[in-house]
Amino acid sequence: MNLITSTTFMIIIGVIARASSLAFTNISSHSHLLSKHLPPRTLVRPSTTLSMSSSPPSSSSPPYDLLVIGGGSGGIATARRAAQYGAKVAVVERGRMGGTCVNVGCVPKKVMWNAAACMEVLHDMKNFGFKGGAEFDWGFLKGRRDAYVKRLNGIYDTNLKNSAVVKIEGLARLREGGVTVATSTGEVEIDAKNVLLAVGGYPIFPPGDGISENAISSDGFFDLPDLPKKAVVVGAGYIAVELAGVLNTLGSDVTLVLRKDKALREFDDLIRDTLDSEMLRQGISILRNTGGVKSIAETAGSKTVTCADGSVVEGVDCVLMATGRAPLTEPLGLEEAGVSQGPRGHVIVDEYSETTKKGVYALGDVCGNVELTPMAIAAGRRLADRLFGNVKDAKVSYDLVPTVVFSHPPIGTIGLSEEQAKAKYGEDNVKVYRSKFANLWYGVFDIPFDEKPPTAMKMVTVGDNEQVVGLHVIGTAADEMMQGFGVAMKMGATKADFDSSVAIHPTASEEFVTLAPWGLGPQESGAKVSPLNGADVSPKVQSKL
User: Fold this and answer.
1) Contact 64, 363 (CB under 8 A)
2) 241 is in an annotated binding site
3) Is residue 425 scored above 80 in pLDDT?
4) Is 317 labeled as ligand-binding?
5) pTM
6) DSSP 438-485
7) Would you give the distance in Å from CA 75 to the centre of its chain?
8) Residue 497 labelled as part of a binding site
9) Is 238 annotated as a binding residue?
10) Which residues contact 204 (CB under 8 A, 6 or more apart)?
11) Residues 157, 279: Cα–Cα separation, whole Å
12) What radius of gyration, in Å, describes the C-alpha atoms of the chain?
């Protein structure tokens, strides 16, 4: 169904008015990033795809310089970077290109979050003088979303061809000197000097009667043909709170089942507590300290969820289990190949992404170290730089990685929580700055201040110079704040450095550079060229003219 004209106009005006506090991300920018992974280069080999209709390479073919198992963002970024240096590269993938992020993760999730953000604007429009309504069509959005994902799959394929990377369709297993690939026409042995494991992970179900039969995973969420009237989301991680928020905002009756007390237990307490209260305010029911789901029974299409503590939810249309993920290592033959794994099955690697088997590397979710798409891309590019670009000791840093949780409201975070900082540096060495306020978006709302959705911020500093080691925010537009602050923190920014940046007003992010007391702390900079006290930070270069 189409939105009525006045409502469509309202959304446009609402977004413009909210520009200082909510940026509706243009997802198509993702395809721009895909096409810009690498600078242009002259292709030295034709691109080929090995599939059921293609002839496999002969046993006498020269070995590949790099063979990548997994066609997700990390694997493809590595392959294309290596090919840029002239390496002979192939990627083995049995499914759709793009991996979890493109197909059942970041991209389609953000589309759904954007839809929920539109619903929030519709809900708020009366406070800006707009009248009218709109109907939401889940099927229409699903069709548009799936078509967009399919387009991204094609962009990945095109980028591989443009980079002269061979694509091999099949399931790979390690062997000495390369891999064995099971294709639709039989097994093919392919030699490679270096092998990269970039296979990612998959959602797992906990044990229990009827759980795997009567529940869906986060993957299954994107197959739902309709918006469920009543949904139970099980889990305490970012996937659980993101999908619970989307479903609730779009109109489902949502219950969040937690094994312990609160969601996002590894996050700063300010984030945990604020999100918890906001989910309740928005109408999400929360079952706490349940010990997890014991069983799920279905009768005539209606599901009954029973928890370990005896709690029961009846009349449920959809049960979504978001209780964890596991590395997709079983098909790889790691033990026989001499590749060691950790207690939860993740591949063990050193700081250079190399496994315990020389010449075999791994990155991304299969390693379990900062499971984020941009992290895998960065790790892969640095690996290719070191192996083929003569960039000695090139490696990626897993410290101070900014991330966003697309909950409602969204969360941005980087670095240590207050608790983690005190445990690492000692309580006496940690100083914390906090702020809580209502975004200007809610300024014209004729409701009590306590009922306005809050924005909460925390800055965690360490040492006499107050170096910033943690930055946390929850609230409107938090998803668009953290990237720039991440750059500053990677450069060793102090509280004084933050204070030295003049605020952009009126925005929510200005609060981070005006946290009280402003400008009265130790006047020490973490910058190579100090910006404090009006110092000139312009580059000191001489004209070449």
Assistant:
1) no
2) yes
3) yes
4) no
5) 0.87
6) E-GGGTT--S-GGGSPEEEEEEEEETTTTEEEEEEEESTTGGGTHHHH
7) 16
8) no
9) yes
10) 323, 324, 325, 326
11) 40
12) 25
Query: Pick the residue with more confidence: 36 or 503?
Result: 503
pLDDT tens readout for residues 437-479: 999 999 999 999 989 999 999 999 999 999 999 999 999 999 9
User: Which tokens belong to 310?
Assistant: 């005896």
Q: Which residue has the tokens 């590894």?
A: 266
Cα–Cα distance for residue pair 446/429, rounded to 1 Å: 43
- Of the candidates 270, 26, 257, 253, the one whose C-alpha atom is nearest the C-alpha of residue 148 is 26
Q: Identify whether the C-beta of residue 326 lies closer than 8 Å to the C-beta of residue 162.
A: no
Compute the distance between CA of residue 355 and CA of residue 317 in angstroms, rounded to an integer: 44
**Residue 253: strand, helix, or coil:** strand
Angle of CA points 477, 483, 487, to nearest 5°: 150
Residue 442 phi/psi, 5° resolution?
A: -95, 10
Find out whether 278 and 453 touch, Cβ atoms under 8 Å: yes
Are the C-beta atoms of residues 468 and 496 closer than 8 Å to each other? no
Residue 240 marked in a binding site? yes
Q: How would residue 414 be classed by pLDDT, with cut points 50, 70 and 90?
A: very high
Q: What is the mean pLDDT of residues 346-372?
A: 97
Q: Is 235 annotated as a binding-site member?
A: yes
CA angle 383, 470, 468 (to 5 degrees): 95
324 marked as binding residue: yes
Residues 6+ apart with CB under 8 A from 248: 254, 279, 282, 283, 284, 408
Known binding residue 357? Answer is no
Give pLDDT tens digits for 280-289. 999 999 999 9
Quote the crossing angle between the two packed helices 269-281 and 238-250, to the nearest 10°.
20
Alpha carbon of residue 295 to chain centroid: 30
d(CA 314, CA 296): 10
What is residue 533's predicted lDDT score, i.e. its pLDDT?
67
Task: Give per-residue pLDDT as tens, 92-131.
Answer: 999 999 999 999 999 999 999 999 999 999 999 999 999 9
Q: Decide if pLDDT at 143 tops 90.
A: yes
Residue percentage of the chain with pLDDT more than 90: 83
412: pLDDT strictly greater than 80: yes
- DSSP bridge pairs for 174: 179
Task: Tell me which residue has tokens 């039969």.
Answer: 213
178 phi and psi, to 5 degrees? 160, -140
Q: Which two tokens stand for residue 400?
A: 């101070």
**Is residue 408 flagged as an active site residue?**
no
Q: What is the mean pLDDT of residues 23-47?
A: 33
Q: How many CB atoms lie within 10 A of CB 368?
A: 19
- Quickly tell me which residue has 């596991």 as its tokens: 326
Give per-residue pLDDT as tens, 182-191. Answer: 999 999 999 9
Which among 32, 123, 408, 505 is annotated as catalytic? 505
Average pLDDT of 268-281? 98
